[in-house]
Each structure stands twice: as structure tokens, then as C-alpha cells.
Amino acid sequence: MFDPDIAPSGTLLGLLQRGRGDGTLHALAAPRDEALSALRHCVLHDPRRDWQVENRSLYYARLCLDLDADLDAVEQHLFHPDDLLDTAEERTGLALAVLGHLASYGRPDALALLRRYAARGGNWAWALDELALHDDDTGLRALAPAVLGRFPETPEGDAELTAAARGAYEPRPWRLWADDPWYGPRVRAAQERGAFDLWQRQLKLDGPRPGWSVRDVLLWAQAEHDLRPGARRHDAAARCLAAVAGPEDRAELLAAAASGPEAARAAALRHLAETGDPKVLDLIEDAAAEPAGGLVATAAVAAFERMRSVVALDRARAWTDRADSLGDAAAAMLACRGGQYDTGLVLGALRRTVRTQGPDAQALWPLADGAGRLAISSAAPVLRHIYRETSSSHLRGRAAHALAVTDPSFPSDFAIECLWDCEESTRELAARHAATADARVVEQLRRLAADPAEEAEVQTAVRSRIGPDRKAR
User: How far apart are CA 380 and CA 372, in angstroms?
Assistant: First the structure.
């Protein structure tokens, strides 16, 4: 994830960057040049906090259609000299995804631009994936010389071609090229090498073996961590401990969890948490006090989050006031699994997190869910603030789901703008709740029902409200 520069939520640019439904409504009401400028800024400078999971492409593509936007700025961005230097997918990924949706809506200029970029651009693999969804067989076959020409017929080039064919998100172009009489032999050879490489990697696994002891597993976890600190082998080691550890190993595991090397300690903590050892909560509390972000502290919090016992819930009630990640985990546990008598603690954690960490805090995700699950009506003002201010479209969606339960005004207020939201789950919620007294609601419901790019879940929700032979209700 990265931290983009997000404009204030009260501005047109800020609304569009957040993917809010009000962004589309304000853009359509604003002067066209101003709306186009804000839209281009969003498409060319990805505003998402997590570009791999948040949706914006369909949202921006629909607005491009509504504003009849040209693609000159997108073309300049894609073929800028920076494209040869900055190979990160997030520089061009959003623009390519928007072009893909525009191509599906019948924009020939978008399809032609995707084809050109797949042949010449740096992020050609993304463009090829978009074309795999939206182009015909003839167009894809025509790209074979340009794409395959990127890989020289040398051992190094063949290895790169093998990796590209194996890693393709959409296999359709590669299947077409494999059947081509001219390029097929090379593509099929690359596909065979990819399958063989996978088989070889499976044969060369050097992890735990049958007959290993608890000590062997812990030593392996630490050795792997020393070699590859980011590999998180302690999680795999904890799963192995579940198979090899018995009651006679408890003392060794407790000792490792209390004072062993960091990876072995992390593995032991997770195993003891999963088996519900009576001493593990005290060990987790001690480990969480170590430097924040370290392997041991992070593993201790993760181990606590996995616990499902009543004892863990009781300890969570005592830890919710902690100003650290363990306190966040405790509040999240109560939000997800607590009872009505925990509403005060969940509400307090929600307010405190917004006040101290802001409306984009990761800790707010389960707390927003918990406010809805527990139907905490007094949480509605905080949820409305989160909805308006957060730059995370996923968190906004969670706040909207909670507001649907806690705020009686939701159907006639936020639910209406949610019909234009960038996240399909939020549009689905709005389709089920938005009050149809507003004429815009009925019109948008009909548009969503007829849009071939809309998700099936959203269209199902729309059909529950309107049908061909009945009025909207």
C-alpha cells in the first residue's frame, strides 16, 4: 500500500478520489471542464490507498462515458518516457483498467489504445489481460509478433517468456498463440517449461519431514527466518507443531514462547494460542510489550486474534484500553464476537480510534462492522464521519453497512449516493435500501439493471426492488 495525496472530502476532486457516489453526482452538475480535469487527475494519479483491492476503474469509466471524455491525456500518460523507467504496475494499472471497461462499452478508441500499449508499453502484461477480456480473437492473434518479440530466442529470453506465460492472469491470448502455426511451437514449449519448473519446485521442498521433533521444527523456523526474514516461516512451523507436539512437549514450547529466538518464539506462541494453553495469554501480553512492528510482537497479536475461547474474550475486555496493537486486537475481538454488554467498550474504542488515528485507521474496519453487528445506534455520528472522510472505499462500505442498521435516515440519505459508489458491495447495499421517493434512485436502479458491466449481485439486489412488470418499491 502507499499513501496518495487526497484532496479534502468537500471538494469535487476529493469526492472522486474517494470513489464516492456524490463524486459522480457533483461532477455531472459541475462545469464540464472542471469535472473532466478532476476525472483525469484521478485516472492518471491513482488515488487508492490499496490499489490491489479497491475498485475505481468501472466508476471512472462510467463517468468518462457520462462526460464524453476523450482519451488524449490517458494516451500521453501511457506513452510518456516515464513508462520506460517506472515499471511499477500502479503507475498505469488504473488507466489500463479504465480503458478496458470503456472498450467493453463499445469505445473503439479505448480498444485501439489498449492494443497499441500492449504492443509497445512497459506494463504490456496488464494491457494484454484487459484485451483478453474485451478483444476478439483476431485482435489478440495480431499481437503475437509484438508481444513474443519482446523475448529474444536465447536461454535468457526463453526463461523470461516462460515466466510471462506462467504468470499471465488471463491465459486466453497464450492459448490462441499456442495454436498458431508460426508462433505455436515456441509458446507451447514455454508452457511446458513452466509446468516442468513447477513440478521441480515441488520436488525440492526442504521443509519439515515426518519424524521431526518439536525442537527440529523450532530450529527450522529460526534457520529459515535467518536466511529469509520476510518469509514468515513461523506460521508454517506452527502448523507443523500441531502435528508433532504432544502433552510431553508443553514445557519446551512454553520455554520457547517465553525466551526463545524470535521465529521459534513466534511459532510457539501461535501453537499455544491455537491449543488454548492456560498460560498463553500472559505470554502474549509479555510479547506484545516488545518493540512494535517486531516479529515477536506482531506474531503475539496475530496469535491472540486467532483465539476463540471465552477466556480470550474475557481478557480482551481488560485489554481494550491499551494504546497499542494488542488493544486494537482486543477491541476487534469484542466487535466481532462480543455480546450486547460489550457495546460500551466497542463504541469507546471506535470513538478513540477515530480521534487518535484518524478516519483511515486499519483498526476501524472491524469496529465499524461491530457497530453494525451490535446495532449501536449511538455510533451513527461517528460512522457518518468515517463514511464522509475516509479515503478507503472498503472502509466506507463497511461504515455504510453499519449505518444501514444504526441510522434510520440511511435509506433517504447516504443510501442514495451509494448507488453510484465505486464498490459493488456498497452499490448492492444501496440497491436494497435506497428510498425510491427520489426520482434519481429509480433511474439509477434501472441503469444498473441494464448495464452489462455491473456485478450480478448488484443486479440481483436491483431486481428485488424493481421488475419489468412492477413499479419500484
Answer: 9
Closest alpha carbon to 173 in 150, 144, 145, 193? 144
Q: Using only C-alpha atoms, what is the Rg of the chain?
A: 26
Residue with more model confidence, 56 or 83: 56
* Distances in whole angstroms, Cα of residue 401 to Cα of each of 143, 380, 404: 44, 11, 5
At position 13, the amino acid (one-letter code) is L
The set of residues, in sequence order, having a beta carbon less than 8 Å from that of 19 and lying 6+ positions away, is: 54, 55, 56, 59, 393, 396, 421, 422, 423
Q: Which of 329, 316, 324, 406 is nearest to 357 (CA)?
A: 324
Q: Identify the CA nearest to 394 among candidates 366, 434, 355.
A: 366
Residue with cell 463517468: 63
What's the rounded mean pLDDT across residues 400-412? 96
Give yes or no for a contact between 341 and 367, defined as CB atoms under 8 angstroms apart.
Answer: no
Read off φ and ψ for residue 292, nearest 5 degrees. -60, 140
For residue 1, is pLDDT > 50?
Answer: no
Please give the model's pTM, rounded to 2 decimal places.
0.90
Cβ atoms of residues 175 and 143 within 8 Å: no
- CA 395 to CA 390: how far, in whole Å? 7
Nine cell digits for residue 395: 472502509
Q: Which residues, in sequence order, are CB contacts of 1 under 8 Å at separation 6+?
A: 49, 50, 51
